[in-house]
Amino acid sequence: MITGRALHFVFKVSDRSLTAKFYRDILGMKVLRHEEFSEGCEATCNGPYANRWSKTMVGYGPEDTHFVVELTYNYGVTEYEQGNDFLGLTIQSSECLRRAAAMNWPVKEENGNKFCEAPGGYKFYIIDKPQPTNTDPVQKVSLASSNLARSIAYWNGLLSLKIFEQTDKTVLLGFSEDQAKLELVDIGVPVNHAKAYGRIAFSCPFEQQPIIDKKIQEAGEKILTPLISLDTPGKATVRVIILADPDGHEICFVDDESFRQLSQVDPGSDAELDKYIKSDKSRPRNE
Questions:
Q1: Tens of pLDDT along 108-127?
Q2: Among 98, 104, 144, 195, which residue has the least CB neighbours within 10 Å?
């Protein structure tokens, strides 16, 4: 049995300035840490780009207690083609809707659900209720499935995520009740990840990573990056294994012990992000 903890979802972004405005000023998230890298990640954290890139973690609180967003920015890449793989991230926050209205950020509606689009076209569904203060406002991440039964066999059967709700077209999974959930939605067609594909991350005890590795290998499923140690200059070294589910959704399992050290909130990260946005000469700027 794997005992995981939901951590974050990774988005590729091409406009850091407008993206930062959306997450800070519309969603009301905080910049938790910002890191700059001179070359591509060994675990392809920034996608298949062997270039300078940055990582910015944003959320409503530290990753010890909140599900957050990782924004990866590749210098010089001006756009990413979207597929049908990412369906949305759901947040409970009437305050988001009020800020969006006040700042003329479009609020759209789909099947009775209100949502805002982040730069790049990523959908954030907003539940029109007061933002909770004692729990995480982020409720779930929704991803596409081409075969729900096969997805359930993988996520529940192999990775040990519990089933919290299920219909004939959807399933809500998670490691525990108090964590953000993963919703898989059967879209009835193949899942296309295009160029903007993301990655969902969980932590688990260091000793469980080899168990995951063995289970995936025995099931004949895909391991994108075998167990590897990743260094962040001046911070903790973490061990990760990167998987792909039957629809090609990327999944990172990082060791919980080291990640709790790595993910400590950096009070200077907000100013650090702004500094690098201001000095970035790699793409056209309209602001």
A1: 999 899 999 999 999 999 99
A2: 104
Q: Are strands 5-13 and 68-74 parallel, antiparallel or unpaired?
A: parallel
Q: Assess contact for 106 and 66: CB atoms under 8 A.
A: no
Q: How many helices (H) and strands (E) does the chain have?
A: 6, 16
C-alpha to C-alpha distance for 48 and 43, rounded to whole angstroms = 9
Mind listing the pLDDT tens digit for each residue in 220-276?
A: 999 999 999 988 777 789 999 999 999 999 999 999 999 999 999 999 999 999 999
Residue 119 carries which DSSP code? T
Minimal CA–CA distance to 276: which of 8, 79, 27, 71? Answer: 71
Q: Rounded to an integer, what is the distance from CA 148 to the centroid of its chain?
A: 21
Q: Phi/psi at 191 (nearest 5 deg)? A: -85, 125
Q: Which residue has the tokens 């990172």?
A: 252
Element (H, E) at 8: strand 5-13
| Residue entry with tokens 């990082």 | 254
Of how many residues is the chain composed?
287
Those residues whose C-beta lies under 8 Å from the C-beta of residue 224, and which sit 6 or more positions away, are 44, 242, 243, 244, 250
Q: Are 9 and 198 in contact (CB under 8 A)?
A: yes
The residues with which 125 forms a beta bridge, in sequence order, are 90, 115
Please state the separation of Cα 187 from the chain's center in Å. 20
Amino acid identity for residue 286 in this structure: N
Rounded distance, CA 277 to CA 267, Å?
A: 18
Give the pair of three-digit tokens for residue 76. Answer: 């010089």
| Spatial distance between the Cα atoms of 40 and 188, rounded to a whole number of angstroms | 35
Collect the ranges in the chain with pLDDT lower than 70.
283-287
Q: Give 30's strand partners.
A: 59
